[in-house]
Automatic annotation (TrEMBL):
GO terms for molecular function: DNA binding; transcription corepressor activity. Residues 1-10, 24-42 have a biased composition (Polar residues). It is found in: Nucleus. Residues 11-21 have a biased composition (Basic and acidic residues). GO terms for cellular component: nucleus. Pfam families: BEN. Keywords: Nucleus, Repressor, Transcription, Transcription regulation. Residues 1-44 are annotated as: Disordered. Residues 74-140 form the BEN domain. It comes from the Eukaryota. It comes from Champsocephalus gunnari (Mackerel icefish). This is BEN domain-containing protein.
Length: 153
């Protein structure tokens, strides 16, 4: 009979191994798990054309199903929480630039992943602009950093 602690340990190690076993490409170094898969996607361009060579990361349907679709902000937050851990988001920024008063810099999130989040949110909330969605992402990263600071004190 396997103890419950052994089962939890095995499940956790299986989750960490899953990206290599599936052969998926995860561009980030988060411990959030294999939530993204690389594929070629047709993205709409500003001039109305379609980009056929844009490589995006597909967000798994299971993550999308768990997201709250009441507002674009909630959907963006839930997508990001499904893709990344709080610690990973707290350690990264949208642009990679640091706060000049503190002198610290944080690495940026991969641009392909940020683009896919924008595409996904725009597919559900067609009236939202890219600038609004970027604001939701920025706020989520800021909130994650604040949460992590509170936990350490």
């Amino acid at each position: 009979m396997i103890s419950s602690m052994q089962q939890l340990t095995e499940q956790h190690s299986d989750r960490e191994r899953k990206p290599e076993e599936e052969g998926t490409s995860t561009a980030h170094t988060s411990t959030a798990g294999p939530s993204l898969q690389s594929s070629t996607t047709h993205l709409p361009l500003e001039d109305g054309g379609i980009s056929t060579d844009a490589v995006c990361l597909d967000i798994k349907q299971a993550i999308k199903d768990r997201c709250n679709k009441a507002t674009a902000a909630k959907y963006t937050n839930d997508l990001m929480h499904g893709l990344y851990t709080t610690a990973f988001m707290a350690a990264h920024s949208v642009t990679g630039l640091g706060v000049s008063s503190r002198g610290e810099t944080r690495p940026s999130l991969p641009s392909a992943e940020l683009t896919k989040i924008v595409c996904e949110v725009k597919s559900v909330f067609k009236e939202k602009t890219e600038a609004e969605i970027k604001g939701y992402r920025r706020q989520k990263l800021s909130n994650s950093a604040k949460i992590l600071k509170r936990k350490t004190f």
